[in-house]
Amino acid sequence: MPDRCAVVITCEHGGNDIPPPYRSLFAGQAPLLASHRGFDAGALEMARDLADAFAAPLVASTVCRLLVDLNRSVSNPVIHSEGVRRLPAEQRAAILARFYQPYRSEAESVVRQAIAERGRVLHLSSHSFTPVLDDRQRRADVGLLYDPRRPGEVALCAHWKATLAHLAPHLRVRRNYPYAGKGDGLTAWFRRRLPAEAYVGIELEVNQKHQADGGAHWAALRRTLIESLREALLRSTGSPPAPPLPQELP
What we know:
Layout: E1 6-11, H1 30-34, H2 43-53, E2 58-60, H3 82-85, H4 89-118, E3 121-129, E4 132-133, E5 136-137, E6 142-145, H5 151-167, E7 173-175, H6 186-191, E8 199-207, H7 208-213, H8 215-237
Parallel strand pairs: 1-2, 1-3, 3-8, 6-7
Antiparallel strand pairs: 4-5, 6-8
Helix pairs in contact: 5-8
């Protein structure tokens, strides 16, 4: 992990908003929209805390992933839910033009500006996962997703996991769980565009059971994740992350 990097936070699944022109597609589906399929509960709260703690720019969306999944490639069949996939091609293209492309452009602009200013960036993409999927219990509290082929990502996640084991030994922290860090996503998209020495991309996955518990427990977990990341950066670089950039980012 390179030293004195800038930090950028994103949150692709921060809410379950359906813009008015598309609400008829989801009529009577309120439980689906409120489920883990509709958004990542707690991810936006975590992202905002990370951005505040590291004085980092935050790029976030609250548009429901069932309309368009901002963390998937346009070629991925599940970028839209089944009902949206049945729309004519021009309507699906309009959804991409209105929501997907501006989000990707803003995220890319912020990341590239951070690299231009500091030479390197740590991009944290904030997500959460449902405790049970297809009747199977997910056996982790926190997942750290990265590409095993990128040494900076490997090193930072190793330090972060070790720091969490020291600060919060009751938490079960797993790497590349419950998903593979090199799979289709915003971080993978950046890796195809930016060299490893300039870009380190980590997806933070938090078990939604903690957000559901709420209150002091959920607040304490968010503080622990921030404190542990700060210490992991110190351990992996010997210096804290760079201070905020001198001008406001988009």
